[in-house]
Specification:
alpha+beta, Aminopeptidase, seven-stranded mixed sheet, two-stranded antiparallel ribbon
């Protein structure tokens, strides 16, 4: 049976905020997701349960920081990712993701979403733990290139091509 998802692009409701906090192990209790100057949010629901929460925090006029929580990856469609990227790249020149290097699922997910590894930031994840820095520029974004794709080749920073489905 195929799930029916509902997508919202409004400030996070309490259940979506709680899911994001649980999935990322960060405290968002005092975060004002209704401040659209700082935040762009998306939540995907299966019924009343959030299964995907995506936030972009506009840290500067050129940089949006990306946070993703996924319980059901079937709700993360190419159409949704394309719409998110088009919207964010109207306000920012780049998207940055800070990933806990121990979280291999998150690393694979941002790689599939077109991000490229850029470096390492000591204590960059939460002030205590280190972070891998991943970045995405509009000219590198496979979702903005217009054509459908089943497979895509992502050029790693060391110059070797890797193929993922």
């Amino acid at each position: 049976m195929r799930a029916h998802y509902r997508v919202t692009f409004e400030p996070l409701r309490p259940e979506a905020q709680a899911f994001l906090a649980w999935a990322t192990d960060n405290n968002f209790a005092t975060t004002d997701f209704a401040n659209t100057d700082l935040w762009f949010c998306c939540a995907v629901y299966d019924g009343n349960v959030p299964v995907i929460v995506i936030t972009f925090e506009f840290k500067s006029p050129h940089d949006a920081h990306f946070t993703l929580a996924v319980a059901d990856p079937r709700g993360l469609s190419r159409q949704l990712i394309t719409a998110l990227y088009r919207t964010v790249f109207q306000r920012a020149a780049r998207i940055t993701a800070l990933i806990d290097p121990r979280n291999q699922n998150a690393i694979r997910q941002v790689w599939r979403m077109g991000f490229k590894p850029e470096g390492y930031m000591r204590r960059g994840y939460d002030g205590t733990n280190d972070a891998q820095v991943w970045g995405l520029l509009p000219e590198d974004c496979p979702y903005l290139q217009g054509g459908p794709f089943r497979y895509r080749v992502v050029q790693a920073t060391h110059g070797m091509a890797q193929r993922m489905q």
